[in-house]
Amino acid sequence: MSPFERFNRAQGAGTMRTPYPIFAELRKQGGIAIVNPAAMMGRADEPDANEMPDLYSAVGYDAVSEVLRDGRRFSSRGYEMMMGPVLGHTILEMDEPEHGRVRGLLSQAFTRKVLESWERDLVRPLVGELVDRFADRGQADLIRELTFPFPVSVIAGMMGLPEEEHEEFHRLAVELISVSIAPEIGLKASAELKEMFARALAARRRNPGEDLISVLATAELEDGSKLDDEGIYAFLRLLAPAGAETTYRSSSNLLFGLMSHPEQLDALRNDRSLIPQAIDEGLRWECPLTGIMRTCREETEVAGVTIPEGQMIHVNLGSANHDETRWDDPEHFDIFRPLKAHIAFAFGPHRCLGIHLATMETRVLLEILFDRLPNLRLDPEAEDVHITGMAFRSPLELPVRFD
Q: Could you give the CA distance from residue 296 to residue 82 in angstroms, rounded to a whole number?
């Protein structure tokens, strides 16, 4: 079993079909629920389930919004212990004012002009090449052959890594996220990625280009300072799995939602102006990552619940996006529902920096599939295709047929 397969299984893939009934029960407690982590993961029957301390979980939309908006009361610093050993010091764990300064610098790599260039020169050609490999076959597994490989290849291309290193980069990016279940594999991947990035960074310092590593090497903070090498390596290691994971899972979930609702798929084929709202609904309905963590900096109250200083809080994005007080029939996939802001990419100062990249990649993916694969549909002979997982959600396979 590969590290990626082990990681997916550890996150409930294949065993947890849907967590949303669990989340709905938690919301009955109010905006903040006190939960047993094992029960929330669907493992309440395991021998050590009662040994795990209860956890405060923000489950209502308003409570999740409040926690994510308020960086003064709720810190991201807890990620330093969880992910710092493999990523380094990243914006994931930074609080203000450091977070704002560094995020401002990193955002220089994601301007509208840069995104337009990546779409034209990288994303469209790459997706097209992958579709070329199966377009004449009449059937494919879109996970294995398209949605899983293309986002990480986009990230490698953005960084300007040599094509001969893309396969190794993909392997290391996958192994990096396995640190929670196989620390030695994650740490080794982190070290090897640093070596790869160090070679690329040294070359860019000698001869800067227009790739992401060149931008990071030359960009300046407000005070005129620049990111040091370790800061650059940390962001690149964060981007490797984060950028690939988000798009792989969100695009897979959206495709499953559309093909499970053929009338909505047909509407989208016939009117591509609906693509942005379809992407939004896919993210709301099945966000790729259902939860993140924050630490309470001081005793405070949210949704009428007192949270002690130092308490870790599970911020349940998936539950917030299915809050029945905000959306009618939230379990149903409906690209025509009235648009309201979802929280699939978090909220507030730590809202995902790559959200526009991810949505652009998904839009391009849909446009090329509609252009190239007439009558795209789920394989009628496939058995029980579905989205699975607790923390990270996506189908394990997406077998399709087309004319």
A: 16
Instruction: Please state, in angstroms and rounded to a whole number, the distance separating the CA atoms of residues 315 and 308.
Output: 16
Q: Please work out, in degrees rounded to the nearest 5, the angle formed at the alpha carbon of residue 260 by the alpha carbons of 254 and 262.
A: 100
Report the alpha-carbon distance of residue 196 to residue 203 in Å, rounded: 11
The residues spanned by each domain of the chain are 19-373
Residue from 246, 238, 241, 294 nearest 91 by CA: 238
Q: How many CA atoms lie within 13 A of 49 on its CB side?
A: 13
- What DSSP state is assigned to residue 49? G
Report pLDDT digits (tens) over 130-182: 999 999 999 999 999 999 999 989 999 999 999 889 889 988 888 887 777 78
Q: Which residues contact 230 (CB under 8 A, 6 or more apart)?
A: 88, 89
Assigned CATH for 19-373: 1.10.630.10
CA distance 151 to 245: 8
| Nearest one of 355, 269, 362, 285 to 317, comparing CA atoms | 285
